[in-house]
């Protein structure tokens, strides 16, 4: 018992010596107080790199540009262009990758239901681009807002844009032919550098090409724009040994030349819809339609599996 008491005494003494000799101090200093001559000069406060509308920022193997922003009431709408210069698919999520704060550092809530017709969500193929909007509500007029983009949830850093809501404007994205590939960002989490478009090319098919996939073939028979409606007619044949489920909403989408997704139109597309279950050896032919704003450089995309990589892409003939 005496030996145990001596052990506890030694432990207490060593603990007191450690606390007395520690290199860290628990004493604080008010931030806005000027240090006296006797105080050691403090390290400078780290600065944050912020970007503006129109800056093309290279983040790893893709670039991102804030091309337009506007304030309607208390809702800030920010339109981005993402271009994939890498060799693998890029998945973009407005919910997971984007946040915003006001000038006091308070996070702003995203607005999902009243934010334009094209969201910044989905897969971007190598050599392709995606244009869409993200909205934040609760923004005060004549205030400063910072928007943060993290391409990887497990990385460090972020790309930050700073906006003065009283001076919001619009800068069009640079033409593809006027830009070159930028350098890879240093941070894995999304902190970017000013850069420009890359060199990857998107492979596309034409009307009449028969495309073979796993267990089925698909052919774009024709695609025509009438007024503001794009109607595409497809034939799908089940060459596999099991039933094939087809959904136009889940498997088909289209983009214009700016990379903005088109709104699918199911009401003005006629009765020959391309949906349902296709048994082995059977064939279905039907239409998929979209509303268009511009009739130039439109592409149609087909993803047989939502969990798979890549997509079949057709270039719509110019009218």
Q: Short summary of the structure?
A:
By secondary structure, this protein is mainly β. The protein has helices at about 1-20, 95, 250, and strands at about 55-60, 60-70, 75-85, 90, 100, 110, 120-125, 130-135, 145-150, 160-165, 195, 210-215, 215-225, 230-240, 245, 250-255, 265, 275-280, 285-290, 300, 310-315.
Mean pLDDT, to the nearest integer, reads: 82
CATH topology of the largest domain: Immunoglobulin-like
Strand order, biggest sheet?
6-8-3-2-1-11
Order of helices and strands: HEEEEHEEEEEEEEEEEHEEEEEE
Beta strand count? 21
CATH architecture of the largest domain: Sandwich
Q: What is the first-to-last residue Cα distance?
A: 98 Å
* Separate helix tally: 3
- Number of structural domains: 2
Summarize the amount of helix as a percent range: under 10%
Low-confidence stretches: 4-26, 170-190
CA radius of gyration: 28 Å
| CA-based shape | elongated
Task: Supply the CATH class of the largest domain.
Answer: Mainly Beta
Tell me what portion of residues adopts beta-strand conformation.
35-45%
| Biggest beta-sheet profile | 6 strands, antiparallel
Quickly give the structural class.
Answer: mainly beta
Q: Would you mind describing this structure in some detail?
A:
The protein is mostly beta strands and 319 residues long. It is elongated. The protein has 3 helices and 21 strands. It folds into 2 domains: 56-194, Immunoglobulin-like (Sandwich); 210-315, Immunoglobulin-like. The longest helix has 20 residues, at 2-21. The strands form 6 sheets. It has a 6-stranded antiparallel sheet, with no helix packed on it. The protein has helices at 2-21, 94-97, 248-251; strands at residues 56-59, 62-72, 75-84, 90-92, 98-101, 109-111, 122-124, 129-137, 144-149, 159-164, 193-194, 210-213, 216-226, 229-238, 244-246, 252-255, 263-264, 276-278, 283-291, 299-302, 312-315. Helices cover 9% and strands 36% of the residues. Strand 13 (216-226) and strand 14 form a beta hairpin.
């Amino acid at each position: 018992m005496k030996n145990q008491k001596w052990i506890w005494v030694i432990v207490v003494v060593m603990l007191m010596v450690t606390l007395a000799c520690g290199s860290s101090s628990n004493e604080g200093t008010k931030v806005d107080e000027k240090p006296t001559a006797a105080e050691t000069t403090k390290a400078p406060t780290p600065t944050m790199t912020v970007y503006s509308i129109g800056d093309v920022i290279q983040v790893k193997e893709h670039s991102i540009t804030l091309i337009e922003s506007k304030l309607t009431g208390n809702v800030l709408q920010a339109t981005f262009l993402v271009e994939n210069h890498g060799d693998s698919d890029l998945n973009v999520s407005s919910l997971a990758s984007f946040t915003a704060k006001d000038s006091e550092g308070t996070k702003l809530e995203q607005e999902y239901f009243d934010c334009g017709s094209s969201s910044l969500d989905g897969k971007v193929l190598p050599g392709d681009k995606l244009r869409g909007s993200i909205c934040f509500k609760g923004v005060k007029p004549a205030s400063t807002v910072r928007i943060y983009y993290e391409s990887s949830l497990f990385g460090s850093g972020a790309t930050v844009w700073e906006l003065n809501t009283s001076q919001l404007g619009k800068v069009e994205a640079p033409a593809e032919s006027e830009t070159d590939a930028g350098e890879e960002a240093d941070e894995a989490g999304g902190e970017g550098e000013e850069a420009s478009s890359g060199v990857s090319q998107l492979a596309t098919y034409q009307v009449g090409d028969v495309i073979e996939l796993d267990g089925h073939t698909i052919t774009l028979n024709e695609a025509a724009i009438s007024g503001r409606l794009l109607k595409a007619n497809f034939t799908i044949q089940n060459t596999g040994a099991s039933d094939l489920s087809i959904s136009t909403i889940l498997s088909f989408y289209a983009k214009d030349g700016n990379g903005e997704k088109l709104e699918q139109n199911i009401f003005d597309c006629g009765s020959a819809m391309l949906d349902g279950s296709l048994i082995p050896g059977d064939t279905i032919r039907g239409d998929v339609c979209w509303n268009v704003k511009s009739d130039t450089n439109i592409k149609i995309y087909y993803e047989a599996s939502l969990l798979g990589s890549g997509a079949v892409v057709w270039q719509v003939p110019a009218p």
